[in-house]
Specification:
alpha+beta; 5-stranded mixed sheet; globular
Length: 500
C-alpha cells in the first residue's frame, strides 16, 4: 500500500526544522517487551501518539483473510470497562449471539447445497438474533472511547491497516498523556468485540463499495491476484468476501491474542513530552500486559516471474490500464533508485509520461507510478486512465516506449537533480509535523525493524546517480517481470463489435 504524508505548508514556519543532522529519538523497552519511541518537541503543548503492531494481512492464514482489517474496526468497540454498563451481564449476550450465528452459518451452508427448507430456518434464526441484539444494546454505551478522547481535547482518533502493519493514532494535549496510556492499555489488554456481526457486515459493504464497484478497486484486486501466484500479498488487506462471510468472532479473538501482544507493539510519542515522566507511566499502564510467544513467521516465497502476465476486468467507465513489476523488500538497496525512477516517469507536469502521454498525445487523463516495497518483496505499480477515444493498447504502448527510451538512453542530469531535490524536500517537510514524524518512525520501526531508516532515507535519495536509475530500469522494468491489467467497458466493446 502507498502512503503519502499530507503537508500543511502554511504552518511550516512554525514547526521544528528537520535536517540531515538526525532525529533525536529515544528508544525504551518495557518489562514485557513493548517498545517506546519518544521525540521531544516543546514548541506547542500537544503530542502525536501512535501504537504500531507488527502484524498485517500478510500474517493471516488461508481461509481467514481480512482479519487484520476487521480487527482495526473492532478495537473501536470498547473494552470490558469502556463501552458497556455491565460487562458481566454482557458476556451472556455475546455467547448467545455467537451460538445463533453458528446456526445461521450452518443453515446458509444448507442453502448452498440446495436445501429448500433452509431459508425458513435462516429467517427464524436471524429474528432470534435480532431480539438478543436489541436486548444487548441496552448495555452498550455507543462511542464511549471516541467521546472520552474528544471531551479531553483530542483529535485525529483513527487507525489503519496494511499488508505488514496496523497502527492506532490520536493527537491530544500533552497534559492528557496519562489518559491516553490508560485508555490504550485497556484497549490492548481487554478488548471486547461487541456488535461483531453488524461490523462484519460493515466491512463486507466496504469491500463492495471500495473495490467491487469502483474501477480502480477492481483493477487492484486483479493486479495483485495476477502478479502474485502464492505469496499472501496476492490478497489485498480488505480480504476475500467468502472469508468475511464465514469469519467467527472466536477466530478473530484468537488471532488478536497471538499477534497483538505488547512484545509485538511499538508506541511512538512525538511532541511536548518528558521521557523521564513518560516511561514510568508506560510501565505502569502497559507493563503488566502479558507478552506472548512469537507467532509463526511467513515462510512462503513467491517464485520468480518468468513471462508476461495479462488480465482484464470489466466496468462501465473509461478504459484504464495498470502494470506492475516485481521488486525487492524494504531493505533492498535498489529502492532509492526505483523511487527516483518512478518520479521521473510520472511525478508532476515535467515528468516524462505526463508530458508525453497526458499533455502532448492526450492519451490519458492521468498517469502515475510508485514502487511499493514492504517487509517482503513488493511491486512497482504504474497506471493510467484513457482519454477520449484512445485505447488501453495505445496507452500501454506509449508508456513502454518511454520506458524503453529511458532504458536505452538514460536520464539527464537536470531530471535527476530536479527529482532528487523535490523528493528530499517533500520527505523532510513531512517530518516537520508531529504526526508525520510519528508515522515514519513507527512505519520503519515496524516494517524494517529499524526506526533509524527515517534518517537514512534522504541520504539514500541523495546518493542516487543517473546510472543507478538506468540500471534499475533495465533490471526490473522488463516484460518477463511484468503484469498488465486492462479495465474495459463492456458496452463500448459491444458497440465496437456492432460497428465492425
Amino acid at each position: 500500500m502507498v502512503w503519502k504524508l499530507v503537508i500543511i505548508k502554511i504552518a511550516i514556519i512554525l514547526l521544528p526544522v528537520v535536517t540531515m543532522a538526525g532525529i533525536d529519538a529515544q528508544e525504551f523497552t518495557l518489562s514485557n517487551g513493548m517498545k517506546v519511541l519518544v521525540v521531544e518537541r516543546h514548541e506547542a503543548p500537544v503530542v502525536s501518539t501512535r501504537i504500531w503492531f507488527n502484524v498485517g494481512s500478510v500474517d493471516e492464514p488461508s481461509g481467514s483473510t481480512g482479519m487484520a482489517h476487521l480487527l482495526e474496526h473492532m478495537l473501536f468497540k470498547g473494552t470490558q470497562s469502556i463501552g458497556v454498563t455491565d460487562y458481566s451481564k454482557e458476556t451472556g449476550y455475546l455467547v448467545q449471539e455467537d451460538s445463533l450465528w453458528n446456526l445461521i452459518d450452518a443453515a446458509n451452508a444448507r442453502i448452498e447445497n440446495g436445501d429448500p427448507t433452509a431459508q425458513t430456518d435462516v429467517d427464524s434464526l436471524k429474528a432470534r438474533y435480532d431480539a438478543v441484539l436489541t436486548d444487548h444494546k441496552q448495555l452498550i454505551i455507543k462511542n464511549e472511547l471516541w467521546d472520552t478522547y474528544l471531551n479531553n481535547g483530542a483529535s485525529g482518533l483513527n487507525a489503519s491497516t496494511s499488508t505488514d502493519w496496523t497502527q492506532y493514532q490520536v493527537q491530544l494535549p500533552a497534559n492528557r498523556l496519562e489518559l491516553w496510556a490508560a485508555l490504550e492499555s485497556d484497549r490492548m489488554a481487554t478488548p471486547v468485540f461487541r456488535e461483531y456481526y453488524s461490523e462484519r457486515d460493515v466491512v463486507k459493504e466496504e469491500r463492495r463499495r471500495s473495490y467491487e464497484t469502483r474501477p480502480f478497486g477492481l483493477m487492484y484486486l486483479k493486479l495483485y491476484d495476477t502478479a502474485f501466484t502464492t505469496f499472501p500479498y496476492k490478497i489485498l488487506t480488505i480480504g476475500l468476501m467468502e472469508d468475511l462471510f464465514k469469519m467467527k468472532r472466536a477466530t478473530l479473538a484468537d488471532f488478536y491474542r497471538r499477534y497483538y501482544a505488547p512484545n509485538r507493539a511499538t508506541a511512538v510519542v512525538v511532541g511536548d513530552v518528558n521521557p523521564k515522566m513518560l516511561i514510568p507511566l508506560m510501565e505502569k499502564y502497559f507493563g503488566s500486559i502479558p507478552s506472548q510467544p512469537d507467532p509463526p513467521m511467513v515462510t512462503i516465497v513467491e517464485p520468480p516471474q518468468t513471462e508476461l502476465r495479462k488480465a482484464t476486468v470489466e466496468f462501465d467507465s473509461n478504459p484504464a490500464m495498470m502494470m506492475a513489476w516485481h521488486m525487492g523488500d524494504i531493505h533492498d538497496p535498489d529502492n532509492a533508485a526505483l523511487s527516483v525512477l518512478g518520479n521521473i516517469l510520472t511525478d508532476g507536469r515535467t515528468s516524462r509520461m505526463y508530458k508525453t502521454i497526458v499533455e502532448q498525445k492526450q492519451l490519458a487523463s492521468s498517469v502515475w507510478c510508485s514502487p511499493d516495497p514492504g517487509k517482503y518483496p513488493g511491486l512497482i505499480v504504474l497506471s493510467g486512465t484513457t482519454q477520449g477515444e484512445h485505447t488501453n493498447e495505445e496507452l500501454e504502448t506509449a508508456a513502454l516506449d518511454i520506458i524503453h527510451d529511458l532504458q536505452k538512453n538514460g536520464i539527464t542530469t537536470a531530471e535527476l537533480e530536479r527529482v532528487k531535490k523535490q523528493s528530499r524536500m517533500d520527505y523532510l517537510q513531512g517530518l516537520r509535523s508531529n504526526a508525520g514524524l510519528s508515522f515514519q518512525l513507527g512505519f520503519y520501526a515496524t516494517t524494517a525493524g529499524d526506526w533509524r531508516m527515517v534518517e537514512k532515507a534522504p541520504d539514500l535519495i541523495k546518493a542516487v546517480t543517473a546510472d543507478d536509475v538506468q540500471r534499475v530500469a533495465n533490471k526490473y522494468l522488463v516484460d518477463t517481470n511484468r503484469t498488465v491489467v486492462y479495465l474495459i467497458n463492456p458496452s463500448e466493446q459491444a458497440n465496437a463489435g456492432e460497428v465492425k
